[in-house]
């Protein structure tokens, strides 16, 4: 290949070649000359990663990959089969390319036996170390074949030291997902469609020592990936692949680091996970079953592929003796789209709890959760809340809600942030009278519980206890005083799983309500109300307090109002009712005691969880710098 420099490339799909950006060029549109057989073909770079912003490093910036399209490609050329999983350490590898090392000016084929070493970090990813062999000039951009998977798992990037057997570096092929998304989807779709109809690579890759089960697994993967490539636009071009991944993976599985841009990416990421317990469907098979089920009513142009996908799901499950499990999965009802929601989260930095990270999602169902972007760097609280307000405004603009189906805003927050005046946030300068809590159903949710899986069972149970109740009937008052000390409250919650809705006598930031709030939180109470900024004292709770739900509250003003306004309200209607009360309070501004004024609703639906992501450390501060 002759582009920015001479090097090697390889066909990944009909008419498309992958190489390194430092070989082909770092900008789309650059001309390239590709030699195949005895002929040169004109080509053009269609996607490439740029070079490092500074040239302090001898290596191009990660991923240093490019996709080249031939203008008039040869007919019937073969294509490699890609392995999206990086090679484990110790895997035997073969790198292939062209070099003029032996004869200057005459590029000759070169095949190098190597071993996968460790990983070397670059700014945006990790390179595969190639050891126990010599990487010659000209091999850059060439394929690296894994002897384990019999597929191309990486692209040669650089040598460590010329004329030695110190090896070099390669880029894992899943880094192609970091290039132009549309180009990637087009190329990877054609790659999988090619291998679905052309079995040459699959037949050649079968080793004599390969077990029938391994051969079957490779064939199944090829068929499934080919079928998934035919469904690239279904069920919805905007479908969240991240949500589909999380719907199938084991609870608590973090999202992959690479973006998932196509069905194939979800499938291959699921195959890389630890296998599920015996008797359960492999994750990738469950994913294909979900797609086949959800696409049962797909347009006619996709119906054949959907039928074939369903058939292959049944065949694969039958071979694994999991026919009943897959039939149940295929028969399951499609999860309906719930009320639209924007979920914002503020959480502490791992290294420094005075700093916070912010992330926002759009939620349509537990199977359709779209990240609004990457999690922020660690920020002081005021900056974090400012970023949250900007992110909410942007994502609310993308949320499809109507006056009849008002959007929900859910804020997952640490305790010290719960009492912020989010309801009065003005996110839209052009309409300064719009307040977040009056325009949308606004609720807060406790960060601490979302990050503690051992608390989830009690949380889910108490939520179910509220399902068929009127919230006004379920509300009890808690203040943390007298017989409501923490040990006594814990005993009360232990004995009564139906205690699920609380009217707090003050803000959770104020003692002794803080203690009561902590017990309620860890006991799984999913719903609480309080007045923002209120402090329990003689004016709120001036006489001894007894056991919640058994003894009458001695100063029940807030509890009485809350029970009255929520007397006919079901669990799922509470956010909407609170929004109405906030608007009523604005209409009756002279009534300072209106319950809608400064009311805060903690409403924590266990089914509306966001993906678990690793705790993010604070960025290191260099000597001489300030945050």
Observed structural traits:
six-stranded mixed sheet; 21% strand; 627 residues; alpha+beta; 18 helices
Task: Show the helix and strand layout.
Blueprint: E1 10-13, E2 16-19, H1 21-24, E3 31-36, E4 39-48, E5 66-70, E6 92-99, E7 108-122, E8 125-131, E9 143-146, E10 151-159, E11 168-172, H2 181-197, H3 200-205, H4 212-229, H5 241-248, H6 263-271, H7 283-294, H8 300-319, H9 323-331, E12 341-348, E13 355-365, E14 368-371, E15 379-380, H10 381-398, E16 408-413, H11 436-439, E17 441-446, H12 447-450, H13 456-465, H14 471-474, E18 475-478, H15 486-495, E19 501-504, H16 513-522, E20 527-531, H17 557-565, H18 574-587, E21 599-603
Parallel strand pairs: 12-16, 16-17, 18-19, 19-20
Antiparallel strand pairs: 1-2, 2-5, 3-4, 4-5, 6-7, 6-9, 7-8, 8-11, 9-10, 10-11, 12-13, 13-14, 13-15, 20-21
Helix pairs in contact: 2-4, 4-8, 5-6, 5-7, 6-7, 7-8, 7-9, 8-9, 15-16
Walk me through what this model shows.
α5 packs parallel to α6 (263-271), α6 packs antiparallel against α7 and α8 packs antiparallel against α9 (323-331). The protein has 18 helices and 21 strands. Residues 333-337 and 615-627 have low confidence and may be disordered. It starts with 9 loop residues before the first strand and ends in a 24-residue tail after the last strand. It has 627 residues and is α+β, with helices and mostly antiparallel strands. The strands form four sheets. It has a six-stranded antiparallel β-barrel with strand order 6-7-8-11-10-9.
